[in-house]
Design brief:
about 650 residues; alpha+beta; four-stranded antiparallel β-sheet; 17 helices; about 50% helix
C-alpha cells in the first residue's frame, strides 16, 4: 500500500478524505489490459425502489450475466453488481462503438418510458469507482467567482420533453465513458483515479430505416424517441458507447474526493459551534445548580439547627423532603430495565461504528461495510444489553429474571424484524432488487437467535452475579403525596420541552444524513458526526439533570421514567422533522409505487426514531441516576 494512502487513514476526523484499509493494494493496469465495466442497480429519488440493471432489456454480455459476490451489507442495501457487455482496453480509446442492436416491443418501450419518467439513473462501476456525471458550477466568496465541478452519481436513463403540448420521452442509448488515470514512474502501468460518464440520445441508422451495416457515427442530432405519437408498435435501437482516457494528477488515495465533496465543511463547523453553545448554556445551568443551589442547600441542611429552623427550610426547598420516596421502584420495572439495557446496546453500537468510520475503516470504497458493521455490532453488543438490563432489574428488587432477560433479547429486535419483514414484502411485490432474499432473512434470524439471544443471557448472568445496588436513602412504606404542579412542570409539557435541545444540537447533521440516505448522496463526514454524537451525549445528560432537579424541587419524586422520557422525547422531534422533510425535500410522485415508497420512508424513519429514543433516553437516565444518587448521598437523614 502506498504511503499516501496510509497517510490518508491518519488524517483528522473532520477532513473529507477517501480512506482505504491497510493492505488494500491498488491495481496497476498494463497497456491493452482489459478494464471491466460493471453495472449496478437502477435507482431514483422519486420512488426509493432500486431495480436490477437487467430488469430492463439492456444489452447483455455474450458470456452471460454473472453477479459479483455480495456481503451482508450490500444485500441489505439492494446493491447488485454484475458484468456488462462493454469491451474496454486500457489506454485504447474508442469512438462510437456498437454495443448491440435490439428490437423492443411496445411493452418493453413502455417499461423504459416509465423508468425514465420516474427519473431512474443508471450506475456503472470501474475498478470499484462509481460512474458520475460531471457538472460545472460557479463558486462565489462575495468578491470573486471561480469555476468548480461537482459530481452526481450515475447518469439518467433518459429525459422527458414537451413539443406542441405533447410529451416526448427520449432514451439515452449512448454513453461517453471518460476514464481518468494517474501515471507515476514509481510503478508500472496506470492506476484508475476517476470515472466520468456523459449520456446522449442518438438515433443511429438501423436496418428498419435503410442502415445498420455501416460504421456508426455519433454526431447525429436526431434522438431516440420511445414514447411519442409517432412511435410504432416496435422500435429498433442501437446501443453505443465511446471510451476516452485522460491523465490526471489525482493520487490513487484521493480518488474518492470528488465523490465525497458534497457538503461544505463550513456548514458542519457551524453545526458544531451551534451545538457547542447549547452545551455551554446547559453546563452553566448545571454548574449553577451544583455550585450554588445544591451547595447552599446541603450546607444549611447538614448544619446543627433547631427544629424550627429545619421546618422553615423545608418550607423553602422541596427536593430534600422526598428522600423517602425518590428511590421507590417505578411502574413497570421490567419494561424500564429492558429499555435501559437495549439503550446501552444501541448506544455502544453507534459509538463503535462512528469510531471505526471516523478512523477510515468504513469507507464508501468498501461497499456494504457500514451496514454490515452496524448489524454485527448490534448482535455482539447483546451482552451489554443483558448485563445492564439485569443490573437495573436487580436494583429494583425484582426476581423474575428469566422473563426479564427474554424480554430484553426479543422486544426491540422483534419490532425491527416485523417492520422490516412487512416492508420487504411490499418491496418484493414491486419486483425491486431492494427486496432482501428469504435466505438472507433466515441468516438474520440465525444471527438473532443463534448469537444475540445467547449473548443477552450471558450478559444477564454476569449482571445478576454482581452485588445489588444500594441506595443512599431508605424508602418509606407510605407514599408521599405529590403537591399540585404548576403548568410548566406538568409531565407532558416538561418532557416535550426537555427534548428540544438534544434535537437542536444534532439538527443540521440530521439533515445531511437524511439527504445521503434518501437523495442517494455520499456521506463521509463521520468525524463531524462523532463530534456531534459526543455533544448529543452531553446535551441529553445535562438537560435531564436540570429538568429532574426542578421536578424534585417541586416535590415530585417520580423521576425514573421522566429521566428517560425527557431526553428521549427528542426522538419525537426527529420523527416530526422526518415528516417535514418528506413534504419539503423529497419529490415522491403519485403513481403505482407511491404508497410503497412512502411506506418505506416512514417505516424506516420510525425505526430510526425508536433507536434514537433508546440512546438519548438511556443517556438521560444514567446521568440523572448519578446526579440523584450523589445529592441524596450527601445529605443527613435522621
Amino acid at each position: 500500500m502506498p504511503s499516501s494512502s496510509f497517510s490518508a487513514l491518519l488524517l483528522g476526523v473532520a477532513t473529507v478524505r477517501s480512506f482505504y484499509l491497510p493492505g488494500i493494494k491498488p491495481h496497476e493496469y498494463a497497456f491493452q489490459e482489459g478494464v471491466k465495466i460493471k453495472v449496478n442497480k437502477l435507482d431514483s429519488v422519486l420512488t426509493q425502489l432500486p431495480y436490477d440493471y437487467y430488469a430492463l432489456p439492456f444489452c447483455a454480455p455474450t458470456s452471460g450475466v454473472k453477479r459479483d459476490a455480495e456481503n451482508l451489507g450490500e444485500i441489505m442495501s439492494g446493491d447488485s453488481i454484475e458484468n456488462s457487455a462493454y469491451a474496454v482496453e486500457m489506454m485504447l480509446p474508442t469512438e462510437c462503438s456498437r454495443l448491440c442492436t435490439k428490437t423492443y416491443s411496445k411493452k418493453q418501450l413502455r417499461a423504459f418510458a416509465e423508468k425514465i419518467e420516474e427519473k431512474y439513473r443508471v450506475n456503472l462501476i470501474v475498478d470499484n469507482l462509481p460512474a458520475a456525471q460531471k457538472f460545472k458550477t460557479i463558486v462565489s466568496d462575495g468578491e470573486h467567482e471561480t469555476e468548480d465541478f461537482i459530481y452526481e452519481k450515475g447518469y439518467p436513463l433518459g429525459y422527458v420533453a414537451a413539443s406542441n403540448g405533447k410529451k416526448l420521452v427520449m432514451l439515452n442509448n449512448h454513453v461517453d465513458l471518460v476514464i481518468l488515470y494517474h501515471d507515476n514512474p514509481r510503478y508500472e502501468g496506470n492506476r484508475i483515479v476517476g470515472f466520468e460518464v456523459q449520456p446522449r440520445s442518438i438515433a443511429h441508422p438501423t436496418s428498419s430505416n435503410g442502415g445498420g451495416g455501416e460504421e456508426l457515427q455519433c454526431a447525429s442530432g436526431d434522438v431516440v424517441r420511445i414514447a411519442s405519437p409517432s412511435v410504432a408498435d416496435s422500435l429498433e435501437v442501437v446501443w453505443s458507447y465511446s471510451v476516452m482516457f485522460e491523465e490526471s494528477e489525482v493520487q490513487w488515495a484521493s480518488r474518492w474526493d470528488p465523490y465525497l465533496k458534497m457538503q461544505d465543511p463550513q456548514i458542519h463547523w457551524f453545526s458544531i459551534l451551534n451545538s457547542f453553545m447549547i452545551v455551554i448554556f446547559l453546563s452553566g445551568m448545571v454548574a449553577m445548580i451544583l455550585m450554588r443551589a445544591l451547595h447552599k442547600d446541603l450546607r444549611r441542611y447538614n448544619a446543627e439547627q433547631t427544629q424550627e429552623e429545619i421546618e422553615q427550610q423545608q418550607e423553602e426547598t422541596g427536593w430534600k423532603l422526598v428522600h423517602g420516596d425518590v428511590f421507590r421502584t417505578p411502574a413497570r420495572p421490567n419494561l424500564f430495565a429492558c429499555i435501559i439495557g437495549t439503550g446501552v446496546q444501541v448506544f455502544a453500537m453507534c459509538l463503535l461504528t462512528l469510531t471505526f468510520a471516523a478512523l477510515g475503516f468504513l469507507s464508501p470504497a468498501n461497499r456494504g461495510s457500514l451496514m454490515t458493521t452496524l448489524m454485527l455490532l448490534f448482535v455482539f453488543m447483546g451482552i451489554l444489553a443483558g448485563f445492564f438490563s439485569a443490573r437495573c432489574y436487580k436494583m429494583f428488587g425484582e426476581t423474575n429474571w428469566q422473563a426479564q432477560t427474554l424480554q430484553t433479547a426479543l422486544l426491540f429486535p422483534t419490532v425491527n424484524f416485523v417492520v422490516f419483514f412487512f416492508l420487504n414484502l411490499c418491496v418484493w411485490h414491486e419486483g425491486s432488487s431492494g427486496a432482501v432474499p428469504f435466505g438472507t432473512m433466515f441468516s438474520l434470524l440465525i444471527l438473532w437467535f443463534g448469537i444475540s439471544v445467547p449473548l443477552v443471557y450471558l450478559g444477564a448472568y454476569f449482571g445478576y452475579k454482581r452485588e445489588v445496588v444500594t441506595f443512599p436513602c431508605a424508602t418509606n412504606e407510605l407514599l408521599r403525596m405529590i403537591p399540585v404542579q404548576p403548568w410548566y412542570m406538568q409531565r407532558h409539557f416538561a418532557v416535550l420541552v426537555g427534548g428540544v435541545l438534544p434535537f437542536g444540537a444534532v439538527f443540521i447533521e440530521v439533515f445531511f444524513i437524511m439527504s445521503s440516505i434518501w437523495l442517494h448522496h455520499y456521506y463521509y463526514m463521520f468525524g463531524f458526526l462523532l463530534l456531534v454524537f459526543v455533544i448529543l451525549i452531553l446535551t441529553s445528560a445535562e438537560i435531564t439533570i436540570v429538568m429532574t432537579y426542578f421536578q424534585l424541587c417541586a416535590e415530585d419524586w417520580r423521576w425514573w421514567w421522566r429521566s428517560v422520557l425527557t431526553a428521549g422525547s427528542s426522538a419525537a422531534y426527529l420523527f416530526a422533522y422526518s415528516i417535514l422533510y418528506f413534504y419539503t425535500k423529497l419529490d415522491i410522485e403519485s403513481g403505482p409505487t407511491h404508497w410503497v415508497s412512502s411506506l418505506l420512508y416512514f417505516g424506516y424513519m420510525a425505526l430510526v426514531s425508536i433507536a434514537f429514543f433508546l440512546v438519548t433516553g438511556t443517556i438521560g437516565f444514567y446521568a440523572t441516576y448519578q446526579f440523584v444518587h450523589k445529592i441524596y448521598d450527601a445529605i443527613k437523614v435522621e
